[in-house]
């Protein structure tokens, strides 16, 4: 085997040294690059003539091997030490192409949907249609479900008076158009009012009757298709029960606020300067209530009205506008419903009394009960054996600490109700059953 050069010693070919060999030009004839053994375009060993390791006695002719005979081509030989061709690029190429195709298809579909939705560019915002529950799909016992049922029965009440227009809230109590609201909403008016329903429609109303001390008034609208509220039982409430207050606080109609029952039988007295003094054994709640909520319903988790929002507590000075601080009070619906029925039936409400007077000189008991200053001879207290000077400690288990407690709690019950009174006479403690009566007025 040879590398393409004839390295035999001179004379080995049978040609005398110094004579031209086969295929060489005569002496003195210039030789081409191919003839001197340096291929013109050889990609390797192009500097063969200057190679110091070249045999100077080797002939300058290039030995070109003869073409092999047909059928005698040598078998291809592969170098076993050569590194094998990796298949990793091929394995990565296929998923890359698949990912590109999937991305292109997804982009095309997204663009098509965006165009159909009226958005030509930019990301699609919001959840897919139908993935968020609509109001009709919300459970009826949820707050949204309760509000949806009660709102059509809640109204905004406007009454024109000498000093301007008074505005409050109310709710439909009967299908024939009776609406319950607060006395202080209609007080000072001309007897005419207007009612705005939650759909924005308006109807004229007239005042049927009102009770100053209980702060309940009834007006009536002439309109068909009214939806009265469902009444609950305020005596069945417990502290912590969830409630909703609905109305038009600060002229913002159809407002719903949530809270809980914070306290029961919260006794208090209220009233405007020069007006009547009102006594409440109220339902206390932390639902946000502001001016304009007056007369609106306080409802339980089943959507039943359990109170009439009436008053709030605030830290402002007299004459300043008060706002909600998480203390609001509602008239128990059992009391409000009874008074409403009496106003509708007779035009006025009866006032419940115990037949005794409290307060005055010597009434201080340091918070340990309420002392009776006088007892009417033929009144309920006298009939139960109570006397002037007796100290009422509890009424139906409710502790008495000041005169307001006894007055407000008695007004809560209907005439004819029997209550248990625990009292102290001297150092003795006794119990008596008192049948409450209606005021003679």
From TrEMBL:
Name assigned to this protein: PDZ domain-containing protein
Q: Which GO terms describe its biological process?
A: proteolysis
Q: Does the keyword Hydrolase apply?
A: yes
- CDD domains given in the database record: cpPDZ_Deg_HtrA-like (cd06779)
Residue ranges annotated as coiled coil are none
Q: Which InterPro entries match?
A: Chloro_Bact_Ser_Proteases (IPR051201), PDZ (IPR001478), PDZ_sf (IPR036034), Peptidase_S1_PA (IPR009003), Peptidase_S1C (IPR001940)
Spell out the molecular function terms from Gene Ontology: serine-type endopeptidase activity
Which SMART domains does the entry link to? PDZ
Transmembrane feature ranges: 91-114
Q: Please list the residue ranges annotated as the PDZ domain.
A: 343-425
**Organism from which the protein derives:** Micromonospora radicis
Region: Disordered; residue ranges are 1-52
Q: Which residues form the signal peptide?
A: none
User: What ranges does the record list as Low complexity composition bias?
Assistant: 9-18
Domain of life, per the record?
Bacteria
**Keyword entries, A-Z:** Hydrolase, Membrane, Protease, Transmembrane, Transmembrane helix
């Amino acid at each position: 085997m040879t590398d393409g050069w004839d390295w035999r010693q001179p004379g080995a070919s049978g040609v005398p040294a110094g004579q031209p060999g086969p295929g060489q030009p005569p002496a003195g004839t210039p030789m081409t690059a191919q003839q001197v053994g340096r291929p013109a375009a050889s990609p390797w060993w192009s500097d063969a003539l200057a190679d110091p390791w070249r045999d100077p006695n080797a002939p300058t002719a290039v030995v070109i091997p003869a073409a092999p005979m047909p059928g005698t081509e040598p078998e291809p030989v592969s170098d076993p030490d050569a590194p094998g061709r990796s298949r990793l690029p091929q394995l990565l190429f296929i998923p890359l192409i698949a990912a590109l195709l999937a991305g292109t298809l997804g982009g095309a579909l997204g663009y098509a949907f965006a165009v159909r939705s009226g958005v030509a560019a930019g990301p699609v915002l919001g959840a897919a249609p139908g993935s968020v529950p609509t109001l009709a799909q919300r459970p009826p016992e949820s707050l949204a479900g309760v509000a949806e049922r009660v709102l059509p029965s809640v109204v905004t009440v406007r009454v024109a008076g000498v000093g301007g227009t008074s505005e409050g809230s109310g709710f439909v109590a009967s299908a024939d158009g009776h609406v319950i609201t607060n006395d202080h909403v209609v007080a000072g008016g001309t007897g005419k009012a207007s009612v705005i329903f939650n759909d924005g429609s308006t109807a004229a109303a007239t005042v049927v009757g009102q009770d100053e001390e209980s702060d309940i008034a009834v007006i009536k609208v002439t309109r068909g298709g009214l939806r009265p509220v469902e009444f609950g039982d305020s005596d069945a409430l417990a502290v912590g029960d969830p409630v909703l207050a609905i109305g038009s606080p600060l002229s913002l109609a159809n407002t719903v606020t949530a809270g809980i029952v914070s306290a029961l039988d919260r006794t208090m007295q209220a009233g405007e300067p020069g007006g009547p003094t009102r006594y409440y054994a109220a339902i206390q709640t932390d639902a946000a209530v502001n001016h304009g909520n007056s007369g609106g319903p306080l409802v339980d988790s089943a959507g039943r009205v359990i109170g009439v929002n009436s008053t709030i507590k605030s830290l402002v000075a007299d004459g300043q506008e008060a706002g909600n601080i998480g203390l609001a009070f509602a008239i128990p619906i059992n009391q409000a419903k009874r008074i409403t029925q009496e106003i509708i039936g007779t035009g006025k409400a009866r006032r419940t009394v115990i037949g005794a007077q409290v307060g005055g000189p010597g009434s201080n008991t340091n918070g340990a009960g309420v002392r009776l200053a006088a007892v009417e001879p033929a009144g309920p207290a006298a009939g139960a054996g109570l006397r002037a000077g007796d100290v009422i400690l509890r009424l139906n288990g409710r502790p008495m600490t000041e005169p307001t407690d006894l007055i407000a709690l008695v007004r809560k019950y209907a005439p004819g109700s029997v209550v248990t009174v625990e009292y102290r006479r001297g150092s003795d403690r006794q119990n008596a059953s008192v049948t409450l009566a209606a005021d003679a007025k």
